[in-house]
Specification:
three-stranded antiparallel beta sheet
Length: 337
Amino acid sequence: MVQELVIAIVAAASAGALYTAAAAKVVKQYERGVVLRLGRLRDDVRGPGFTMVLPGIERLRKVNMQIVTMPVPAQDGITRDNVTVRVDAVIYFKVVDAASAVIQVEDYRFAVSQMAQTSLRSIIGKSDLDDLLSNREKLNQGLELMIDSPAVGWGVQIDRVEIKDVSLPETMKRSMARQAEADRERRARVINADAELQASKKLAEAAKEMSSQPAALQLRLLQTVVAVAAEKNSTLVLPFPVELLRFLERAQQPAQQPQLAQQPAEQPSARQQVAPPQTGQPQRAAQGQRPAQAQPRPRPRPPSSGASAPTPSPPPVPAPPNAVPARPSRPKPLARH
């Protein structure tokens, strides 16, 4: 009798221990417990610590309330300025309503991941390449708003969304590198030109000061020679003063003036007329030719018997004072048969 009683007590204690072990639950500090009694949601969400549920009647689901870091897979897209890019991002979110995260969505992690991928593709198509590279803060805010709108009904709060990397094609990278190089070269030329302008102004002021004291130019020349010789070079470059060249140029100018004075001061006028040539004698009216010898007058022949007296030749016509004397014609040689 006693033995049977002891066995019953032990069996009851064992059953109680098993029931307690099945009903006892421990909720951690970063978790919340959602209790479903016979498939129905209980209003009270169990906090962290020890809690009891009815085995077989109630079911406890623990929801992590920590901030979750989820990488968004890289998405290929075309920007608004028709550039193919590959963009990946990272999203930070947490559950603020454990009951909604269990009831409203089957798997809130998968839902947030898919929403982040579609929102990332949408934001790529609405943005330019320059915005993706330099204005990421604005894109991050827009991406966060796009994901947070449906996630609020799931009991999930989006803390932050960051675009990690933007991959560009190799041709686009080379084009951007050339553009950056050209921009750097332009700025370098502008700076160099500005420096030359400032240096020219200073040199002009220095030349103005040295013009009043010619010895200063000679001292500056000696300083240049000392600076070049300090480098211990085998070749010494000696600047040639420009003033010496100007002195030689001024010295040559007086020598050229007497030569110009020897030239004829007056040239024959174009209105001067040339005397007409006599019959049978061609005349060459060339300016600057030496005067031709005067033609000798023909002597009269004595009259022969039985012949009439010769007709006297007409007197020569005097030439105008300004006419060029005619050149006598030479007899043509007789052709030999």
